[in-house]
Model the fold of this input.
Amino acid sequence: MASNLLKNIVKLDTRVSVSHNVCLPIRCLSTASPRVKDKTGKNIVFVDGVRTPFLLSGTDYASLMPHQLAKEALIGLMRKTNVPREVVDYIVYGTVIQEVKTSNIGREAALAAGFPYSVPAHTVTMACISSNQGITTGIGLIAAGAYDVIVAGGVEFMSDVPIRHSRKMRSLLLRANKAKTPLDKLKLLSTFRPDFLMPELPAVAEFSSGETMGFSADRLAASFKVSREEQDQYAVRSHTMAQEAQDKGYLTDIVPFRLPNSSKVIEKDNGIRVSPIDKLAKLKAAFVKPHGTVTAANSSFLTDGASACLIMTEEKAKQLGLKPKLYLRDFTYVSQDPIDQLLLGPTYATPKVLEKAGLSVNDIDVWEVHEAFAGQILANLKAMDSDWFAQKYMNRKSKVGIPDLAKWNKWGGSLSIGHPFAATGVRLTVHTANRLVREDGQFGLIAACAAGGQGVGMIVERHPDATAL
Done:
């Protein structure tokens, strides 16, 4: 398969040098980059996006409910953009593991955030690309002429996931609720067995295969011959770059979160940990034991957090006196084998969205790709650089090509910043926007894998009025 690929990935600084087996192409900067055509006739723009700090589950957000995080993201967005809530026409919000009390969390969060009753909201779920789906659903609603101003986002709250009674116990309770006499209830009680009390816990696993994503990541890394050392080196890279971005004040998408009934204000992500490579090497395999290569340190962690963003037509933005960050140019969703290719969404989505936009790999100035696992990222890079994989699985004559890794997840990623499943898509988008400004780029590509063997690719273009604040 793709061998000898990740060599000389990039030298970060004197603290960490990442050395893989991939030969990087030399990026050719062009002063005449092609401009992507607007397909909607409306020049839909991404005005800005915000997020709460992303926190390890079970830490400072542990006593909250998910709609409270979502509420603060929505309020923070309106404050940052200075757009009145009444201007918003519609809200599309994502979540993956739902709190049963707030099943349409988009609506509940909007009401809690003070949006008018007349602003409709619905909730989407598409695993790790749920807020990408929120954004692109908003693009569709604007393109169709249904609305002008859309808020999109997502929330995930892993500190308190729904735990159900067993199916046997649920059936017993439902029948007991319908029983009309004490005798009927006693008859039902006589059918009770101790094993009815075994709870059903939610799992980060595929329903179709029953396999957890960590096992899939381990098998994928083995298939593409991604070593444990390569994965640990990539994890150090992610945390190091995230720490540098945090220290330099680049993570301006964060809105501080004051804990209810407390004076404590959360102002930054708490999962960023820069550790020596030899410390990571001592960790045991987390999934395929004892010989697997995926560990707690080279995987994304369970995270609480919420995000929100504002999209509209460029004309509407001008009317409101706003300075957008991006043009939302193109997008595509992909799906493939949910067992052997579960996490290869970026490999499949990247060439499709580039071709739709009329761009090439070398036209992209900023890459923001979701890091579910270090092994998943490195396997995708190897797949993208493999003619054999392109021909056998993607119906392509030649490989996609490997990106310029000096432009890849330069502020860290989900491995370090955190990954609240439904909130990550907005984080990827606003980081792309702010990096384009700071790095003086034109085009950004956002990509992510998701459960079910799905993925997304999005092309965005820096708006001339964009700032990184």
The first strand starts at residue 10 and ends at 11. DSSP finds 14 helices and 14 strands in the chain.
